[in-house]
Amino acid sequence: MLDKIQSLIDEVKALQAKTAEDAESLRIKYLSKKGAISALFDDFKQVAPEMKKEVGMRLNELKTVATEKINSLKESFAEQQNGATGADLSLPGTSYVCGGRHPLSVVKNDIIEIFGRLGFTVAEGPEVEDDYHVFTALNFPLEHPARDMQDTFFINTNPDILLRTHTSSVQVRVMEKQKPPIRAVFPGRVFRNEAISARAHCIFHQVEGLYVAKNVSFADLKQTLLYFAKEMFGPDTQIRLRPSYFPFTEPSAEMDVSCSLCGGKGCSVCKGTGWLEILGCGMVDPAVLEANGIDSKEYSGFAFGMGVERIAMLRYQVKDIRLFFENDVRFLQQFKSAY
Ligand code: DAH
Fold it and tell me: What is the pTM of this model?
């Protein structure tokens, strides 16, 4: 009996199957009720009592070896049928819906990146500000109309706490903390109490720039902005600076770029002028430097501020500013390839 068990163990260990059906017939041959191993269990009744212990152990070993071997043969066929992962590789794949950056983020990042190449770092400040950082430290006279209730959103009717109307407030926050040289851009959201239309919104985005160091001149300002305009709108872009007024810069200017659509000939976008206004700029008023503890005899600087929506509208030919805030996927999907 022991010899028979041993030879069956050897036999079972060497079993092979070519198909799943082969494996199943092996199971029937060895493990079913009428199989070879069950027959041995029947014979076990006749084994002499003193041999029962050893024969019983060997029989159980045979059964375990056979069960494991035949199961592993069967599993190998199941795997082959379903591929190694058990997945049906012939099924069509699931495609992922890819998102894209919001056009305002694309344009804002481009602006930051262009100035980054000139050594400008990035800083941010709070959207809920106080009067001092938005107006007073920037040389706004007390009676200046920008402080008017019609332009500014105040918090809880406390006239000292408000939503910033421009990112120029971050200039103040940076000058408070940092000694010159300062060379940074400040992107962010701004808020104005304006009627919403195709051209204006009560929330929009600006990027402010500030450069304060020794011997900074208007020529530096002009060269920096010319570089920016060419990088943003193309190498043939020209700029024009028109005298203007801002309380925090002296002299101040507004900058136009040549219309990239008509190349300056005049079209509906530039309203026949060939020029598009894109930003305000100027030399930092010495009073602003002094208000922020910077010696205006030793240092000078320039600043500029631009609207991100305005630049995005020009670049992508968007005719209505409200589209940037509605988050209609049909609009946003058109910018998927922009990066
Ligand atoms: N803060 C101005 C605005 O909101 C834009 C601006 C103009 C920023 C001139 C500047 C500047 O830094 O020098 O319209």
Answer: 0.73
- Distance, CA of 255 to CA of 239 (rounded, Å): 7
**What amino acid is encoded at 101 in this protein?**
R
Q: Which of 208, 278, 284, 309 to mutate to test the pocket of ligand 1 (most atoms within 8 A of CB)?
A: 208
CB 68 within 8 A of CB 46: no
Residue 177's H or E segment, with its range, is helix 168-177
Q: What is the whole-number distance in angstroms between the Cα of residue 170 and the centre of ligand 1?
A: 12
Tell me: pLDDT of 22 over 70.
yes
Using the predicted structure, report yes or no on whether residue 219 has a pLDDT greater than 80.
yes
C-alpha 146 – ligand 1 centre gap (Å): 12
Q: What is the pLDDT of residues 76-111, one digit of tens each?
A: 777 666 556 667 788 888 888 788 899 999 999 999
Alpha-carbon gap, residue 80 to 56, rounded angstroms: 37
